[in-house]
Design a protein that fits this description.
- With about 200 residues, this protein is mainly α.
- It folds into two domains: about 15-125; about 145-200, no CATH class.
- It is built from six helices and two strands; from the N terminus they run βααααααβ.
- It has helices at about 10-40, 40-65, 70-145, 150-160, 165-175, 180-195; strands at about 5-10, 195-200.
- Helix 5 runs antiparallel to helix 6 (about 180-195).
Length: about 200
C-alpha cells in the first residue's frame, strides 16, 4: 500500500546557510589580511632595534678607549653616552614592535568579528525559529494532514511572508473560481518552507 509523507527539503534555507557561511569566512579572511598587513610594520621597529644594537656596540668600542692617554677619558664618557642612547633606542623599538603586534591583532579581530558576529547574531535566531516552525508544521501535517485549521494558519503566515506575485495569483484564482485562496496560500507557504509531500511505502 502506498501512502504519503511530509518531508523537509528546504533548498532556500540551505542557500541562506551557505551565504551566511561565505559572509563569515570572507570577513575572517579580510581580518587576517588586515592583521598581516599591520604586523608587517614590525619590520620598522625591528630595524630600529638593530640600529640601536649597532650603536650600542659602537658605544662599547668607544668606552674601551677610556684608558688611552689624552683622548681616553673624553672618549670613554662619549662611549657611555652613546651606549645609554643606544639602550633607549632598543627599548623604544621593542616597545613599538609590541604595540604594533598588539594593534594588528586587535584591529584584525575587530575587522573580522564585528561584521561576521553581527550577521550571525541576526541570522542564527532566525534560523532556530524557522527550524522550530517547520518542525512543528511537519508534525501537525503528519498527525492530521492539511486540515482546515492548519490551512488557515498557513494562509495567514503566507500573507506576511510569501512573495507578492504568488499572493496575488492565489487571490486571482479564488476570484475566478479556479482555486481556493486559503489552499493556494497554504501551499505557497509550505513551498516557501521547503515542506513537500512525497510517496512512502
Amino acid at each position: 500500500m502506498t501512502s504519503t509523507t511530509w518531508q523537509i527539503n528546504d533548498r532556500t534555507l540551505r542557500r541562506s546557510d551557505a551565504a551566511a557561511a561565505a559572509w563569515v569566512v570572507s570577513w575572517l579572511v579580510v581580518g587576517l589580511a588586515v592583521a598581516y598587513e599591520i604586523w608587517r610594520f614590525t619590520a620598522l621597529s625591528d630595524s630600529t632595534v638593530e640600529s640601536g644594537q649597532a650603536l650600542a656596540r659602537a658605544g662599547e668600542g668607544l668606552s674601551g678607549l677610556a684608558d688611552v692617554p689624552v683622548i681616553g677619558p673624553r672618549t670613554g664618557e662619549l662611549g657611555q653616552q652613546v651606549s645609554t642612547t643606544a639602550g633607549q633606542i632598543v627599548t623604544s623599538g621593542q616597545e613599538a614592535g609590541a604595540s604594533i603586534r598588539g594593534l594588528s591583532i586587535l584591529i584584525g579581530l575587530a575587522v573580522a568579528l564585528i561584521p561576521a558576529g553581527s550577521a550571525l547574531a541576526l541570522y542564527l535566531p532566525y534560523r532556530r525559529q524557522r527550524n522550530r516552525d517547520t518542525a512543528a508544521i511537519v508534525s501537525a501535517l503528519r498527525r492530521g494532514g492539511l486540515s482546515p485549521r492548519l490551512v488557515r494558519y498557513l494562509a495567514e503566515r503566507a500573507v506576511a511572508r510569501v512573495p507578492a506575485d504568488i499572493l496575488l495569483t492565489a487571490r486571482d484564482e479564488a476570484d475566478t473560481g479556479s482555486g481556493d485562496e486559503a489552499q493556494g496560500l497554504a501551499k505557497a507557504e509550505l513551498t516557501r518552507l521547503g515542506i513537500t509531500m512525497s510517496p512512502a511505502s
